[in-house]
Amino acid sequence: MKIRSAGLLDLSRIEEMHRSSDVKLSEAEPPAARLWSLLSSTLSALLPLAQDTLIYVAEEKGKVVGYIQASGQPLALDLRRARVLQVLNLQVADEVDADEVAPALVQHLCNQALERGAMRLFVRLPDRDALLPAFRLAGFRQYATEQVLYSEKPRQRSDEYPLGIRPTRRGDDRRLYQLYRKVTPQGVSQLDRIEVVGFVRVQRGGAARPDTLQLMALPEHPLPAELADYGISLLGDSETPAWSSLRHYDSHMIDALRGRGFTILLTQLLLVKELAVRVPKPVREKGLVPSFG
Question: What is the DSSP string of 6-71?
């Protein structure tokens, strides 16, 4: 088996494998792997050979039998300078041994990413996904879990929204980062003051893609409930189902959505692999001089 960079002549085979995977997923219950595709990015949403994505194929007897794809965050980032990459797709053909092909593709991606100067590789996988061992073997470790919540028709419980809510404006990026640090376990004790206490963004769906709710709030009553109601109000009269993905430490927002018609569709594992470890410069030892007296 040979693993190499994808070329233009490989695209038709890659798209064929991608469509075949979609057909199989349409028959699966629950649609965990399909939702993983929605949560990340699908192949059709990217230019596979552009500078903002890496894609490698496994070839056996002249036929492509698998591929792996990763991208920088955000998209359109020059991967020659990217320090963090997200694995978007990993697929293996039915006629080959996935236990042999998948780990080889993951390891090749790790090696290539390290050569390009990347420090970390991230991936999200549904719990008990068949591809999980391929990432475990390559040294990926779990750093969080993520609950994916889904509702055919979200419902508000109140018209009371958080005081001071406003559209985002220039300069909010730093404040949002402070909020992120505040609501995550690592940053709870590291900040003294914070100006932004909540964040909500709605992205309209269409066709087979549901509306998306992105939420982040301090766990202070009644802020999560009010922010959830405000987010649902932004959906207006949309007839499209809605989903939101929240990490295990966002339990206050998970509870708020569950009280408004959302149910937990699946649990995902968030994995990371450290490709390079920073080693501090050694401290020069002081010479010891024997003392006689």
Answer: --GGGHHHHHHHHHHHHHHHTT-SS-HHHHHHHHS--GGGS-TTSTTEEEEEEEETTEEEEEEEEE
What residues have CB less than 8 Å from 28, skipping those under 6 apart? 34
Is 210:240 a contact under the CB 8 Å cutoff? yes
CA 259/CA 228 separation, integer angstroms: 10
Q: Could you tell me the domains of the chain?
A: 2-139 (3.40.630.30), 149-268 (no CATH)
Closest CA to 149 of 216, 223, 241: 241
- Going from the first residue of the chain to its last (293 residues), give the mean pLDDT of each consecutive group of 10, the final group possibly shorter: 86 79 52 45 43 82 90 55 80 88 93 87 84 90 84 88 85 78 56 64 81 88 90 89 88 92 87 75 50 38
Give bridge partners of residue 212 from the DSSP assignment: 203, 243
The position carrying tokens 């070839």 is 59
Mapping DSSP to helix (H, G, I), strand (E, B) and coil, where does residue 217 land?
A: strand
Confidence at residue 61, expressed as pLDDT on a 0 to 100 scale: 87
With a threshold of 0.90, does the pTM exceed it?
Answer: no
Which residue, 56, 131, 84, is CA-closest to 273? 84
**Computed over its alpha carbons, how large is the radius of gyration of the chain?**
23
